[in-house]
Structure formats: structure tokens, C-alpha cells
Design brief:
With 880 residues, the protein is α/β, with parallel strands linked by helices. It has 30 helices and 34 strands. Helix 3 packs parallel to helix 20, helix 4 crosses helix 14 and helix 28 crosses helix 30. The protein binds iron/sulfur cluster. Iron/sulfur cluster binds next to helix 1 and helix 7.
């Protein structure tokens, strides 16, 4: 087969991908050198896409009540239950909860059915958790959800300010573009983040602010801008193109810089250094992400940033502007079609009667929703209290990703009718479904996505759909038809959905709205198939260089942003602030990235990053287990002791679910406090208590088959090498270790075991061989098991016949130190931390040196920031 051009399904960078199927069923993945988002680059996740296509655990057929059903039966039931519920309880008694993972065509179909035909706006998306505050901030300032900048601006800026954005891990290809620009241009970089993240490896200045204090920081900047010798250009921009500056300046001046220093935890020297740099640098881009958005003051944070760009006139010109980078591959597409409960469609407003008339006339719909629907947190509360009685969840996992996640699970248990469309058969959400509908996965589906710089790209199918899986838009259209709306949902292809959507953006537009894809509304199927990445508006990379905002008077709005601290404060019971976020090589709830051993090699367990002094005070040891509690839940996480954390703050990743861990669902801890404007929940400032978990034993099992977890209180399962790995810890040690090892291994009874047991020290080790082949191993100890995981998992499945070698494996120690890799840093070439440190001891001094010596960092580049950190820490610790 020939190479197919498509788009990465992970983050909002929207990298172009070349997928080439091999004759042996493999898939070669490369970055598309012609795609303007990545120019051939891919990060570790994108590079490993070919390893995530296995069909194990795919949902292949519709199911009703856990039993296989035909599509007709399942769709008839969904339509019937939604119709009956609406007749009995009204249109607001039903809801859709969709996802930034679905394609624009899917989103359009769902939004049209709910808002134009059911007549409710109860459709929300997991993008609510990601960037709803940016949408709200844009609308308040610009009059529309318009992203004014583009990726080129990152490379053309002289100063890039990163706020609440770990770009190195969450948008790695943009980070690489910034890194490259910095090398050639000398771009100054300021990182504003409570944690010292991997992104700080290229920062000139890291401002480790107290959680949730971005507004005073940027209000202080606005005051500094106002107090600086006003530049004519900026003054002219304010006077000509904005309103509301006086109020915003007055509010900003309300907090003296000394109070800002106290509130943010920054020194006056740090504050002044940042303010002076910003004021003096004309070409400044401010990139912000979840650290800004996921806050009970998220919209104010966004507007505090935008205010500074309006006050300097730095918007829409090369290398200048505020830039919200989106987390999900099609968060932007969802915004465009109106996938949020408070938007209509095509960047039109639900609360604008003229917009409602335009959309309704285009859709020829019997009704049109005329008030915002329930936003995600309220939506699931309405499910829980019975106001919503029928819910369709599409391509997302709210039982893990929503705050108060256990309450969400309880709400789904109580809901009379739950439909879940997904690719995976077993997620923490599918178990609550009355009806399961098999969806198409990446590589099977066909449509468009929009990235963070308004660039529409095609996702193309290159592999057949498994069994009966069908497109999400098709599922929506079929249900619409069965509810009596078939005439307006008679699409036969993604192309037909797309051109209808493009037509809506142009309908009665006449330049009044930012989003106009009119020139794509008439493309035929062949042109749609061949569509190259296209940025809107056509032929224009940026917005607002000469004003012309989308408010009624075409002027931008300054928004006064008085400081509000996070919704919940720490207290004696919950003295730590929990920040949640992503890790480099996992995505969302791991339904795709969890399938590959390569991506699991970097970080294989849910963890808690704790500042060193805090850890000592709490009695936490590195690699021990921490129990984290809040008023809403409790989790068990592996302890990572760190200097990169503020005292009093802890960090945990959001990815782990009940499929991969015993108690790793961190969103069970989070309260559903939301921003009053955007409805986005505060996911980065939750008061928690942390204590050591009193583990009496720790275990490590590797196996060719999926190991059991043996009832351990703590366990985390991951792919490893050609098999699996389970880390565990428990309170009560098994009576018979050998029986325990056999029960865990999952490799049958026909294997021979070689074991070592030292009862007084609690050491137990056991290896299972099928002939000469190592098929499983189990290690237990009273302390965290000290075995090189990458070395051990590399041995799995290999022949080990010599008694001496078997003794080495049983000892859990590589024969020579060179075989020890330590935790994997470079997943592309399987290079571990210990190997990199060894290369530094051998004389390497730069990331390039390390790459030449070990190959680490020479493929996708996602690990280069970690290599840089290792260089800094190792060379400082052991000077040459
Ligand atoms: Fe995919 Fe990585 Fe590109 Fe994001 S940066 S789109 S995850 S390859």
C-alpha cells in the first residue's frame, strides 16, 4: 500500500503524519515534512503511533446490557429511549458528553442534533476541562473565540512567555520549534509555573509562582506597562482599537508590587526582571495552557494576559500575541462547530437571536436551543440528581477525567439510560453503559481536525474498520433518522458533513464573523480527499493587527481582573496543594498510549512528586508509596522526591485509571469548583493530605502474559518489553510466596521455577522458565524492589540456559554495570538515565555530545529537555 498523509490524534499541535502500511501488517510512521505544523518532526507519542494499532480490547460490535446486538437493534433502542425521555421530561432531560478526540464532522453532527433538533444545548465536551477559559477570555476580549496568532510567531518572537504550560512534555513539537528558534535567534524565554518542569531546561527566567496567583502577576505587569514611558504605537492601539483600559489599569494598580511579591511568592527582583523584559520586548508571544485555564479564576487569568498584549498593541503582528495552545487534537474543531454547551455553531452565540435565526434557517430545524446548556461539571451533577435521564458519552472517559470522579461514577450508576461510543471495550466508563457502540479509531476514521493555529488538516483512514465499528457522525445521523429527523441527517460520507458545516460558517456571514470556510463549502469528494492543511482565514495567518475585533463596535475589550485566590485554601487537615497534569509519553486515560511498552518505559506508574523537605517531614521515602486524601477521595501513588517542586505543593499525573492501577485515579480527589464564566474546573489547586502508606512488602512481577495483581493494596500495570510488568505493595505479606508468584504470573503450570527466599530479611525472588525461555519473574522485599526494570524486561522472552546467567537474573542484578540502563529517558532508542550519566562521566558535556555517545535524543527529540536537566544536575554534582 502507498503512504497515507494524515494527522496525529494526540495533542493540539496537530502534526502531519505519514503512515505506510507494511506487507507484514506493520505500520511505519514518520513526520510529514510538508505539514506546516511540524515540518517532519514528531514527538515520542507521535513516533509510537504505529505500535498502538493493535486490536486487542477493541469494542467490535454494539452491545446492549453487555450482550452483542445488531446495529439496528442498538440504534433503535437509543433513539427510542431518547425520544421517550424527551416526550416525558422535555428536551433538557437528555444530554451528550463528547470529546476533543472526535473529528469536526462528528462534532458537527452531534451539535446539530442536540441544539437544532432535540432543542436543548445539553451537549458539552471534555474540552471544557481543557480550554473553556481561553474560549471565554477570547469572547470577552475579542467578541469571538479567535486565536490571533500562529506557530510562526513562536519562531519570530524575541521573548516567549510560557504560563502554566509544560510545552516540553505537552506540546513537544512546538517546544522543539521554540528550542530551534532560540538557538538561531537568541529568543528569551520566561516560564511561569509553580513547578520546575522540563520546559525550564531552556528558560532564561523561571518564576515559580504560588499556585493560582497568575492574575496578580499579570496585573502587576499591566501596571508596569501603564507606568512605562508610553510608546506611541501602543497608545494609538489602545485609543483606536480598544475600550475599557481605564478600569483595567485602575484594577491593576490596586495591588502594590510588594503585595504581588507576597501573594505570588516571588521576589521583587524576579518580578522586576520579568516586567522590564516584557515591557522592553516588542516581539513577545505569551503561550498559555492548562495551568491558566484549569482554574476557578481561569477566564480572568486569560484576560489578565490578553490585557497586557492589548496595552502594548502586541497582537496580530509577526512574533506578537497571546496564544492559547490546546490540549486535544480537535479541541479547536469542537469550538468551531459549537461543541460547548454555551456556544451555538460556527462561532455564533446561543444568546444572540440573530445568530439563532441564521443557524436555524440553515439547518431547517424545527427548534433551536435558546439558552446555554449544562457545562460538564453541572451536567454530571444533573445526571446524579436525576434531571438528566438519558446520556450519550462519545470518545471520552469521564469516570476518570472529571473532578469528583467517584461522584460521576455514582451518577452514571443511577442514570436510567447511558450510551457510550468508544473504541475500547473496557474503560472505567464503559462499564456503566446500557448500550455500547463501537467507534472507529485513528487510522480507520476519516475527516478533519483543527489545530491550535486554526489549521484544518485531514485525518485519513489507512486501515479497515474492525468488525462492525462505525464513524461517530454516522451513529449520530442514524439515531437522528430514527428520531424522525432523517431528512436533515442524510449524509453518506464525512465529505458531505464537512461541506454542510463549511457552508454554515459562510451563511449570512458577510465578513461579520471570524470563521468563514465558504471556499471549502463547494469542494467535491475528490478535493476533500486531497485537501491539504489549510489555515483559516485563507491567506491570513493572524488576526487583529489593525483592530477590527468581532465586538459590535469592532473594538477589543480590556477586562478588569481583580484577584481571586483558588476556590479552596489549604488548612491543617489538608495542608498541601495538589497540582495535576500530564507526563511526556502518556495521553489522556492511556487507552492508546498504554498499549505500547515503548511509551510505558518512561514513566510506568502513577506518582506523587513531593518536595524534598516536605518528604522528609512527612516520612516519605523515594519509591515508597504515598496515600493522598482530600474531602472527595483517596489514592495511592509512588513517591518521587524532588527539588523541582515548591514546598507545600505536590504534583500527580492524571492518566492512570482502574485499568492500569489500584488507586491511581487522581480526579477522585478533585472538587468540582469551576470558573464562574467558563465553567472550567479547578484541577491544579486542590488541598490534600499526604501520608506514607504503611507497606509491609513491595513486589515486582514481569510476565509474558498479563500478570494478576494478587490483591495488593497498591499495584500499577504496564506493558514492558514483549510482555507486562506489575509493580505492587501491600500490607499483609502472602503466606506462601511461591504460590503467590505462580498465581501472579499468568503463564500456566508447565513452567519450571527457580526461587530464592530469605525469610528473615523478607527477600523473595523467583523466575519461571519454559524450557530455556524466561517467561516470568517475581521479586518481593520489605523495601521498594531494587531491580533495573529495563534490564529485566529486556530479558523477558529470551533464552537463558546457563546456570550462572540464571543466577544473575535471580539476583536481579545485571552482570556488568554497563548493562544497567536505569529508568528509560529516550524511548526511541531505549536509553536509560544511568547510561546518560555514564556518558557524562565519560566527558560528554552537551545534549549533542550525549546523542553522539548514546543516540539518546537523536530521533524525536522529546527527551532532550530531560537530558539537559541530567547534564545540569550531574555536572553540578560532579564537576569535571
Ligand atoms: Fe502528536 Fe506529538 Fe505532534 Fe502533539 S506534538 S501532535 S502528540 S506528534
Amino acid at each position: 500500500m502507498s503512504t497515507i498523509r494524515t494527522t496525529c490524534p494526540y495533542c493540539g499541535v496537530g502534526c502531519g503524519v505519514l503512515a505506510t502500511p507494511g506487507t507484514d501488517g506493520s505500520m511505519t510512521i514518520k513526520g510529514d515534512p510538508d505539514h506546516p505544523a511540524n515540518f517532519g518532526r514528531l514527538c515520542s507519542k507521535g513516533s509510537a503511533l504505529g505500535e498502538t494499532l493493535a486490536l486487542d480490547d477493541r469494542l467490535r460490535h454494539p452491545e446492549i446490557g453487555g450482550t452483542r446486538a445488531t446495529w439496528d437493534t442498538a440504534l433503535d433502542l437509543v433513539a427510542k429511549r431518547f425520544r421517550e425521555t424527551i416526550i416525558a421530561h422535555g428536551p433538557d432531560s437528555v444530554a451528550f458528553y463528547v470529546s476533543g478526540q472526535i473529528l469536526t464532522e462528528d462534532y458537527y453532527a452531534a451539535n446539530k442534533l442536540m441544539k437544532g433538533f432535540i432543542g436543548s444545548a445539553n451537549i458539552d465536551t471534555n474540552s471544557r476541562l481543557c480550554m473553556a477559559s481561553s474560549v471565554a477570555g477570547h469572547v470577552r476580549a475579542f467578541g469571538a473565540d479567535t486565536v490571533p496568532v500562529c506557530y510562526d510567531d513562536i519562531e519570530q518572537a524575541d521573548l516567549v512567555v510560557l504560563v502554566g504550560s509544560n510545552l516540553a512534555w505537552c506540546h513537544p513539537v512546538l517546544f522543539q520549534r521554540l528550542e530551534a528558534a532560540r538557538e538561531t535567534r537568541g529568543t528569551k524565554i520566561v516560564v511561569i509555573d509553580p513547578r520546575e518542569t522540563a520546559t525550564c531546561s531552556i528558560a532564561d527566567l523561571h518564576l515559580a509562582i504560588a499556585p493560582g496567583t497568575d492574575v496578580p502577576l499579570f496585573n502587576g505587569l499591566l501596571a508596569a506597562i501603564a507606568g512605562a514611558k508610553t510608546k506611541t504605537k501602543a497608545r494609538k492601539f489602545i485609543d483606536t482599537h480598544t475600550t475599557g483600559s481605564a478600569d483595567a489599569f485602575q484594577t491593576a494598580r490596586g495591588m502594590p508590587i510588594e503585595t504581588i511579591a507576597e501573594t505570588t511568592g516571588l521576589s521583587l527582583v524576579e518580578l522586576r526582571a520579568f516586567y522590564e523584559l516584557f515591557v522592553a520586548t516588542e516581539r513577545t508571544v505569551t503561550i498559555y495552557s492548562q495551568g491558566v485555564n484549569q482554574s476557578s479564576a481561569g477566564t480572568d487569568k486569560v484576560n489578565a494576559i490578553i490585557n497586557c498584549h492589548l496595552a502594548t498593541g502586541r497582537i496580530g503582528t509577526p512574533g506578537a500575541g497571546p496564544f492559547s495552545v490546546t490540549g486535544q487534537p480537535n479541541a479547536m474543531g469542537g469550538r468551531e462547530v459549537g461543541g460547548l454547551a454555551n456556544m451555538l455553531a460556527a462561532h455564533m452565540s446561543l444568546t444572540d437571536a440573530e445568530h439563532r435565526r441564521i443557524v436555524q434557517s440553515y439547518w431547517r430545524s424545527p427548534v433551536i436551543a435558546d439558552k446555554p446548556g449544562l457545562k460538564a461539571v453541572d451536567l454530571f451533577r444533573a445526571v446524579g440528581d436525576g434531571r438528566i435521564k438519558a446520556l450519550w458519552i462519545m470518545a471520552t472517559n469521564p469516570v476518570d477525567s472529571m473532578p469528583e470522579a467517584d461522584t460521576v461514577a455514582a451518577a452514571l450508576t443511577a442514570c436510567p439510560f447511558v450510551v457510550v461510543s468508544d473504541v475500547a471495550r473496557h474503560t472505567d466508563t464503559t462499564k456503566y453503559a446500557h448500550v455500547l457502540l463501537p467507534a472507529l479509531g485513528w487510522g480507520e476514521k476519516d475527516g478533519t481536525v483543527t489545530n491550535s493555529e486554526r489549521r484544518i488538516s485531514r485525518q485519513r483512514a489507512f486501515t479497515p474498520a474492525p468488525a462492525e465499528a462505525r464513524a461517530d457522525w454516522w451513529q449520530m445521523a442514524e439515531v437522528a433518522g430514527r428520531m424522525g429527523f432523517g431528512k436533515e441527517f442524510g449524509w453518506t460520507s464525512a465529505h458531505e458533513v464537512f461541506v454542510e458545516y463549511a457552508g454554515l460558517t459562510a451563511h449570512e456571514n458577510n465578513g461579520r464573523r471570524d470563521l468563514d470556510l465558504g471556499d471549502l463549502a463547494t469542494i467535491d469528494s475528490a478535493a476533500y480527499d486531497a485537501l491539504q492543511p489549510v489555515q483559516w482565514p485563507r491567506g491570513q495567518q493572524r488576526f487583529f493587527a489593525v483592530g477590527d475585533f468581532f465586538t459590535p463596535d469592532r473594538k477589543a475589550r480590556f477586562v478588569a481582573t481583580p484577584y481571586r485566590p483558588p476556590a479552596l485554601a489549604t488548612d491543617d487537615t489538608y495542608p498541601f496543594v495538589l497540582n495535576t497534569g500530564r507526563v511526556r509519553d502518556q495521553w489522556h486515560t492511556m487507552t492508546r498510549t498504554g498499549k505500547t511498552a515503548r511509551l510505558s518505559a518512561h514513566i510506568a506508574e502513577p506518582f506523587l512528586e513531593v518536595q524534598r523537605d516536605d518528604a522528609a517531614r512527612l516520612g516519605l521515602v523515594a519509591a515508597g508509596i504515598a496515600q493522598v486524601t482530600s474531602r472527595h477521595g483517596q489514592v495511592l501513588l509512588r513517591v518521587v522526591v524532588s527539588e523541582r517542586q515548591r514546598r507545600g505543593s505536590v504534583f500527580a499525573p492524571l492518566h492512570w485509571t482502574d485499568q492500569f492501577s489500584s488507586q491511581g485515579r487522581v480526579d477522585t480527589l478533585i472538587a468540582g469548583n469551576v470558573d464562574p464564566v467558563s465553567g472550567q474546573p479547578e484541577l491544579k489547586a486542590m488541598p490534600v493530605a499526604v501520608a506514607p502508606f504503611a507497606a509491609q512488602w513491595y513486589g515486582l512481577a514481569v510476565s509474558l502474559g498479563m500478570p494478576e495483581t494478587g490483591g495488593a493494596a497498591y499495584w500499577a500495570r504496564s506493558r514492558a518489553g514483549v510482555g507486562w510488568k506489575v509493580e505492587m505493595a501491600g500490607v499483609e505479606a502472602p503466606v506462601d510466596w511461591q504460590a503467590h508468584a505462580r498465581a501472579l504470573a499468568g503463564v500456566g503450570d508447565e513452567v519450571s521455577w527457580i526461587s530464592y527466599h530469605d525469610a528473615p530479611t523478607g527477600q523473595f525472588r523467583s523466575c519461571a522458565y519454559d524450557g530455556d525461555r524466561l517467561v516470568a519473574a517475581f521479586f518481593a522485599a520489605r523495601q521498594p524492589v531494587a531491580v533495573d526494570r529495563s534490564w529485566l524486561t529486556a530479558l523477558l522472552g529470551s533464552n537463558i540456559s546457563e546456570a550462572v546467567e540464571r543466577g544473575v537474573v535471580l539476583a536481579g542484578r545485571a552482570k556488568v554495570s554497563a548493562q544497567n540502563k536505569g529508568p528509560i529517558v529516550c524511548v526511541c532508542f531505549d536509553v536509560g538515565r544511568d547510561q546518560i550519566v555514564e556518558s557524562l562521566r565519560g566527558g560528554c558535556r552537551t545534549v549533542v555530545d550525549v546523542g553522539t555517545s548514546t543516540t539518546a535524543g537523536t530521533n524525536c527529540g522529546s527527551c532532550r529537555s530531560e537530558i539537559k536537566r541530567l547534564i545540569d544536575s550531574t555536572l553540578v554534582a560532579t564537576p569535571a
